[in-house]
Amino acid sequence: MKLEGKVLVAQGGGPTAVINQSLVGAVLESRKFPQVTKVYGAVHGVAGIIKEDFLDLTQETTHNLEQVALTPSSALFSTRDKPDEKYCKEIFNVLKAHDIRYFFYIGGNDSVDTVRIVNENARLSDYEFRAIHIPKTIDNDLVINDHTPGYGSAAKFVAQAFTGINLDVRALPGVYIGVVMGRHAGFLTAASSIAQKYPDDGPHLIYLPERPFNIEKYLEDVKRIYEKYGRCVIAVSEGICDEEGNPIVTKLLNNVEKDEFGNVQLSGTGALGDLLANYIKKNLGIKRVRTDTFGYLQRSFFGCVSDVDQHEAREVGEKAAQFAIWHNLDGSITIHRTGDYSVDYQLTNLEEVAGKTKHMPDEFINSEGNNVTEAFRHYVLPLLGSGLQQAHRLRAPKVPKLLKKE
Amino acid sequence: MKLEGKVLVAQGGGPTAVINQSLVGAVLESRKFPQVTKVYGAVHGVAGIIKEDFLDLTQETTHNLEQVALTPSSALFSTRDKPDEKYCKEIFNVLKAHDIRYFFYIGGNDSVDTVRIVNENARLSDYEFRAIHIPKTIDNDLVINDHTPGYGSAAKFVAQAFTGINLDVRALPGVYIGVVMGRHAGFLTAASSIAQKYPDDGPHLIYLPERPFNIEKYLEDVKRIYEKYGRCVIAVSEGICDEEGNPIVTKLLNNVEKDEFGNVQLSGTGALGDLLANYIKKNLGIKRVRTDTFGYLQRSFFGCVSDVDQHEAREVGEKAAQFAIWHNLDGSITIHRTGDYSVDYQLTNLEEVAGKTKHMPDEFINSEGNNVTEAFRHYVLPLLGSGLQQAHRLRAPKVPKLLKKE
């Protein structure tokens, strides 16, 4: 029995470089089914649903949709709203009023819970309704999934940034600290390891939220590397915490505040990098210490997209439409690695994915907790897609000195 | 009369994405001349010359050189040394000892002066010697030149970053401030204007070192844009100064210090962005204000290179070898625009280029001093090369509301 009615697609949370592939995959696939009367898009995610702020995507040309698919950042706009039971009830009322029978929500783990509660509302009201969560997050922190759409492209950006930084710091030696997004999971920061091509290549140290960050150990690490190579490149997750789970940015600011800074606000995005840099300068006496906070560049940069990520983001959108409209099923689309490299998509119960955070497994982190393992590099490499550029070095022999003794 | 002897190539100052194209152009072209006995490369620029730290690039394979050409950041490493007369005398002594008859120095305007003084030393010693400066700088601030190698690729990075940021801030509205490199010239920051595709696209405000920055005017500008579009994307040069020529980062820190911060150090790279953001938060009460400092990402990012920039960087290296070895001339290679778009290379007297800084001409800046003109966009676009990606939007009609009145 075919369920006739409208489809609604929405996007939530932080944008990614490929989130519109999932949107376009869901829209184009939905438009193929005769029982689908219209395909709507909610503007600004769940916030737009409450306001009945819908676009009629049935009237978009296929060609423009294909162009939008290649454009980073949520074309339907996004929201940071995290609906509670009452909010979800309102969502359901709007969906029902518009005869929406299929709801596809592209988002992270908060979005899964929204899909679950709205679906529960429909069930209790005996309203025939299918709801599917389509995964996306640059943090790569959705459970069950081998990885999530959006991560591969952000990881490619981080990898290519550190490949360049590594060469830059070889040319003009010093200490460099790059602060990468990731409050609870270190996958994105860990992708910096792809820059490690030659044995002395950085990042020489990688600090992740999965391991407690000890400021004295950090100092020792940097000192050792700097003495060995005359330079040190460091990748650090914005979310690193101490043994008690307090974010380092807070802790250091408190220390420094008492020491010399005064009432510094926590709001500055460059704060963690600057503090880690100042700590090195003050304690190791190294003059050239530089820091960058990658910030928003890493999630929407135009022109650094993984084709594997594009492809998978498209397919999770298409699969959502297929599972819901063809098979009459609810759930969350999950990505499973089936080969080296191949994936398959499954439908997982929403409860299994909702509200949980995946962390870097132990086998991906070295025993010292200051770098990643070969296992991680093997895991991440295929996700970056084709065309990853390689750094090359001069290998010419040295010329004997004439004026000075060697 | 052919001048027989060795060639020495060196790289100075900040790395660029295409600086190795110039290196490889000079090396491969030099190797074609029978009067060239060897081609050396100085490690770490002029500092390496003093130490006689040379690589014998005659022994590099052409294939590896081609791979190095595609790799960003100075393959011979760089230096921040700015040689004085005494330093240049030492350089000359080393060059003479090694029978180096041709010297090619790839660098910014400081490097021109080094080439000039070393050449003067040779002339005074009646040592037959040719010295050529090969231009490079992401700042695009060399006089005589229409533009300089390295700028196009950095500009492409900035353009693509702001294209993504613009989409990101549309999806999750607020105020965004991106701080771009450029202490005295605003060319790199101005390249953000390429993101302005649709009439409401950012960056809505572009602040350059060529115009005094007034903090109250800035506040008014942001308020006006934010009220009009519900968001505001800002590109700002790190080198913006007040009416008296004092860098804003110093001035604001002083203000804020007296006000609430205490003894904040100037060293933090995120300082300017954070201060401009805090000023908006405090005075306009806008909650979501984000800032990124593009930092080192913009000059060595791997995978965002302009093919026009690559091509020209290669040719200025080749032309240096041709002017010196074929024509027995000294000078600085300069790039001249001859069509829309085509260029020609000339040899300019070192004195005309040395130590001078090119600024954005008035016709490239709008009358309010807070954006660029169409003339600038026309100037910069061809330098970004082919394959610049375009953002696309959904154009679907709105769906009438059923539950709520419009």
Automatic annotation (TrEMBL), chains A, B:
Binding residues annotated for substrate, in chain numbering: 137-139, 181-183, 238, 296-299
Entry GO CC: cytoplasm
Pfam families: PFK
Catalytic activity from the UniProt record: beta-D-fructose 6-phosphate + diphosphate = beta-D-fructose 1,6-bisphosphate + phosphate + H(+)
Domain of life: Bacteria
Cell compartment(s), UniProt: Cytoplasm
Name of the protein in its database record: Pyrophosphate--fructose 6-phosphate 1-phosphotransferase
Source species: Caloramator quimbayensis
Gene field: pfp
